[in-house]
Amino acid sequence: VRAVINGKKQIPLKLIEEMDVVAAEVYKSKEPIIYARSLLRATTKAVGSKVATNLVDEDREILRGFISLLGLIGQEATEKADLRGWQTLPGQAWMNVVQLPAGEHQIRMEYINGSGNVVFTETFDVQMGPDTELELLESIYSY
Question: What pTM was computed for the model?
Answer without folding.
Answer: 0.56
